[in-house]
Amino acid sequence: MSGSETERPETERxETERxExxxxxxxxxxxxxxxxxxxxxxxxxxxxxxxLTAESVGSLILGFLSALTxxxxxxxxxxxxxxxxxxxxxxxxxxxTEIHSGLGIASTGxxxxxxLLIAGTVYHSYRAQYAVPLGYRVIQWSDLLGDPRxxxxxxxxxxxxxxxxxxxxxxxxxxxxxEGYMHPTQHQTxxxxxxxxxxxRRGPFGTITPNPTQMIEVTLSGDRRVAYRSTPVRVGGxxxxxxxxxxxxxxxxxxxxxxx
Length: 260
Description:
- The protein is an alpha/beta fold.
- 44% of the residues lie in helices and 18% in strands.
- The chain has a five-stranded mixed β-barrel. The protein has a two-stranded parallel sheet with strand order 1-2. Strands 4-5 form a two-stranded antiparallel ribbon.
- A hairpin with a 5-residue loop joins strand 4 and strand 5.
């Protein structure tokens, strides 16, 4: 075997070793590049992290609890606190937007609290003005209208004005609730008693006096005084009937403990 043939395998073996070494170097360089890129991303991800403020979450929770104001205005503390926390969270987030989040949550909580506070207030104001108080019986002017020929008082009204007996045997009167107009008087303020009528009718010579059974003599209980109103008023109290009144005078009188 000649010498050239002996050297050829050694040459091929050295070439193979150099190729494997080159591939290992390239592989190691690739791994280094991967780890360098991977390590370079981590600080950016940490830098993008923002904490959700507790005030914004609290504001949203109180916003939902603000619906309780429809049950009672004693729960108005919830929407008030929700608004305060919402505003506090918004200011806190805007001062440091790079570390705090929750601006949308805080805005929603504050807006929900404010909306339900206003809605609850309007609801209770409406009930206080127009709703029938608990325990009062609503009556209409048509219920009071007597017989046009005899002037006899309707039997249901006579029954309503009689004393009632409860389960314990105690006697009580059923309070009534009615809406009407204050009949014009010479006094405009400090009025303690007035005539309530279903409507104000005016003729060529002044106000027309209605049917006596379409009038109620109202006297306010206690020391209460009111001013004259041309708009409808609502009164509640104990209604009494005097069927022996003189002709042309109303048989109805009402001791009012409620005036709206």
